[in-house]
Amino acid sequence: MGEGSVVDARAENAWLRSYPYWDAYFGVVLVATIAIIVVDGGSPVAIVPLLLIAASYALWGRTAVRRPPGWVGKSRWHAASMIVLFTAADVVAPQAAVALSALIPMAFMSLRAAPAAVVMVAMFTGPAIQIMIDLGSHPVVVALAIVLVLSAAALLGVFIDRLGRQNSERARLIAELDRTREELAEVSKEAGMLAERERLAGDIHDTLAQGFTGILMVLQAADEPDRHVRRAMEIARENLAETRALIAALAPPALDGASLEEALGRLARGFELPVEVSVSGSAGVPPAVAEALVRTAQEGLANVRKHARAGTVRLELRHLDGGRVRMSIGDDGRGFDPATVSDGYGLRAMRSRVTRLGGTVTVTGSPGAGTTILVELPCSGC
């Protein structure tokens, strides 16, 4: 998904929006730790590993905490760097332990709970022992204090880990919801387009088609039709045929209530020229593929009627290996060289419809030898 997309914006939850605040918190803790070392008389040498931790955060850690917990690439590099560099800083300046308030949560944000707990123990045990020894506490008290503090830190880490998981799951669900909404919007749009096309087909049938039919009836009733009248009748017949083809293209697909083989047969019977139909294994074709095949057959036959000047047409449907179906529409008309002629609107619409379903359209032919339109579509389950 591209940056700034609707899904990204919707999926950006409170956890994601908190990252800039986390960066600021880490910076404040690091500066505060350095200040305490300087003010409290700690060794300035400890500042070097702390600055190296900041560099590790910029190089690996910042990306690691923004990834789902457990991402193993930069998370492990940053965790190892924190252990080594913090231990070095704590050895020379115990005041560096203040940095743990940022380093321990960072471990749980970038790692799963178990490895994060290991990192926590590795960084926390040394400073805890040092503090208790400096206070002169009994070893048993030191051990109990370490156990209690580590337990509390572990519980906090588990909470951070679960919070991160829940937010990642929420982001996934929101993204899935947005995809579903987009799909529903597309389905609704297509349904509206189909309804509008059906309405337009009815309007054309009730106006233009009826008008051309009336013109033909009036012209045929002329007692002595001259050349101009005969030409007017030819034009009216051609436009009536065009109008009927337009109505067929706009109306709901011929598949309604019929099998693919029956729909193709119905198209062939309604065509002006003899059409030889051969269908093999039409059962099991998905509805979307079947509708595309019927629409493509409509377009192909319309092109034959408009341009081919053919005597007969062949329409064949075959299943291929690899879950594909092939339909060919061939005629014995005047033909043309596809390489020298650009696609008309009908072929462009045909290619667009088939390409959306992952198929291909190939046009072959030569002048005087007819034309063949070859359509191949993926057909899962066929």
TrEMBL record:
- Indicate the transmembrane segments per the record: 20-39, 77-104, 116-133, 139-160
One Pfam assignment: HisKA_3
Q: What class of enzyme is it?
A: transferase
Give me the Gene Ontology terms describing cellular component: cytoplasm; membrane
Q: Which UniProt keywords apply?
A: 4Fe-4S, Coiled coil, Cytoplasm, Iron, Iron-sulfur, Kinase, Membrane, Metal-binding, Transferase, Transmembrane, Transmembrane helix, Two-component regulatory system
- Name its cellular compartments: Cytoplasm
Write out the catalysed reaction: ATP + protein L-histidine = ADP + protein N-phospho-L-histidine
Q: What are the EC numbers?
A: 2.7.13.3
Q: Do you know which InterPro entries this protein is assigned to?
A: HATPase_C_sf, HATPase_dom, His_kinase_dom, Sensor_HK_TwoCompSys, Sig_transdc_His_kin-like_C, Sig_transdc_His_kin_sub3_dim/P, Sig_transdc_His_kinase_ChrS
Query: What PANTHER family does the entry give?
Result: NITRATE/NITRITE SENSOR PROTEIN NARX-RELATED (PTHR24421), SENSORY TRANSDUCTION HISTIDINE KINASE (PTHR24421:SF62)
Q: What's the stated role of this polypeptide?
A: Member of the two-component regulatory system NreB/NreC involved in the control of dissimilatory nitrate/nitrite reduction in response to oxygen. NreB functions as a direct oxygen sensor histidine kinase which is autophosphorylated, in the absence of oxygen, probably at the conserved histidine residue, and transfers its phosphate group probably to a conserved aspartate residue of NreC. NreB/NreC activates the expression of the nitrate (narGHJI) and nitrite (nir) reductase operons, as well as the putative nitrate transporter gene narT.
Protein name (record)? Oxygen sensor histidine kinase NreB
- Please tell me the species this chain comes from: Nonomuraea jiangxiensis
